[in-house]
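Consider the following input, taken from an annotated entry for SRR1L protein (Nothoprocta pentlandii).
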Amino acid sequence: QVPPSQCFVFDPAFSEQELALLGELGLRLLPENEEGKHRVGEAATLFYMIHCGKALYNNLLWSNWALGALSKMVIIGNSFHGIEERLLSRILERDYSYIAKVLKGTEEIAFPSHPHYTDTFNDTSIHWFPLQKLKELSCEVWECVEEPTYQECDDLEIIRK
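Applying the prediction step yields:
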């Protein structure tokens, strides 16, 4: 029931044909590559980010690093707990610190498996950030708000501006 004019889309790999179709559907195209740093507004916001790189999730969290903003977000994308399991903790904390910091404030439910799409949605989860859980995070979690730079990141999965 969300009007198309309130749906924003962006992928740096969209073709001209895809852009034209999305425009015809009435969806709003973000004018530039925000590298995932899109801020939520006043309304609850759903981010559909299937198979995105870790830096996009990390950037999105950073750009909304406040109780009020995070508690309005829902992310459908790669499992944060899966990311935590696959990365060394020092790499997670160094390169993707906002994912690492918000894990204890996240509720996550895996998509149910489907026999025809096991390779497509095998690591997809729905994430949300209940206000009460966010309030339970330590004060130190909220103090550091440096913009991620990924200087030491070897496997950056993001298309830069």
